User: Fold this.
Amino acid sequence: MEKYVGKAAFKGIAIGRIAEMVKADKTVRREHVEDSAAEIARYEAAKAAAISQLQGLYEKALKDVGEAHAEIFEVHQMMLDDEDYNDSVIDLIESQKVNAEFAVAETGDNFAAMFASMEDEYMRGRAADVKDVSERVITNLLGGDGGGNTFTEPVILVADDLAPSETVQLDKEMVLAFVTRQGSTNSHTAILARTMNIPALVQVPIPKEVDGLMGIVDGMTGTIIVEPDEATLAKYQELKEKEAAKKKLLEELKGKESVTKSGRKVHLYGNIGGVGDVGYVKENDGEGIGLFRSEFLYLSDTDYPSEEKQFQAYKQVAELMAGKQVIIRTLDIGADKQIDYFNLEHEENPALGFRAIRICLTREEIFETQLRALLRASAFGNIAIMFPMIISKWEVERALEILNAQKDILRSKGIPFKEDISVGIMIETPAAVLMADELAELVDFFSIGTNDLTQYTCAMDRQNQHLEKFFDAHHPAVLKAIQMTIEAGHRHNTWVGICGELGADPALTETFVKMGIDELSMSPTSILQTRKIIRDMD
Assistant:
């Protein structure tokens, strides 16, 4: 029995097999081959396997997230059947006597460069797709399965680190817990774990040799126990049963109001990253969705999601929530959330760089597409729009101008939408806090993003694992900024919520209620516990 200690990103207990996250080595080397026919046969077999894998992904996506999100896998299958693409691969193998891996990589690069140079935006977007399908074939040629990390049973997933784009593509039903050797308690892996209500550990010095062994994740102490003895296993099974019993008691709060004994009502909403997370909000009796991170639609794709694809996703969430408010944050990409096809330049300090509303107000065609999708979806439920990373009045004014222009376009086409759709902004910078009175005159609501507000107030990178002992989300300056924002909003009849991780911090729930907060949005699994705290307050 071995123990490895790191930091707990989300509490809880998980017991199961350990599985190391497989990241295929796709290094391709040029090799001379004599038997071109055999090499072409290898290519054809790898391509056939890739098409089969893509069909499986299409069928799974169709069931999980609907046609709009599944269609990308059909497009990729068609690309692998493209005559020009196949002729290029085969010609390289035959004429240059090279290995299939090199021929596919070279063809993929050439076709991607060709698409990227085209004037049509849609055709430029195909560059990322051709790279993706080429990498899938190369993975098969190199001996991988090309299908990602698939498991026959739920596992404790161990990795060096997990990028947001990797976490959103995991089969959540097959993950008992996350354990990473790097990362921070504020990482997107940690946020996903909180949404899924599974334990997560970061900064754990665990060797790769544990793959396949039995493990216990203790999210209370930040420990993973490998090959536990019988006594330890029995102890944790008992603790897990007690956790389940506690959860059952909280279930009794479903259907009840989040109101103090004196009658002070606070709305409790859930944070989600996509359509698949709505079930967690409903399961935990969320009163609405306070933060739909729309960037995850972009992170899970190989190209800019179309207006139709976004519309279908937003519409589905709105309909599932059946009239309850759904606040959708517009694209918040940049900083730690990088996407290849955005082709963002390298920045020395991306957290202070080109991100969120700054991208949207610079690449307005991306913003316009998203706003039209949001407006169209508003006809099917109670959708509100929220702009992130605001620091100035002109940003809100310009964003509203673009929004109104999209309303005009939809009206001219006779496409229905909610005329009086609610619009808010995130307060996540000291500048926004100090400008809150002026900003409140422009919008219907504020939502305080405490993760970034803490980062910028304390001048500290929240992703830097070496700074965690200095990172204090309870810093008096952060709490004072929250209080100032609430007061400014209320002076102008603008309601104020919190959608950052502090919204679920039980040590601050009473403080926020006394400050006058109107809404708290959090990982869905924290809703009932927070409701209990509020209902126990005088």
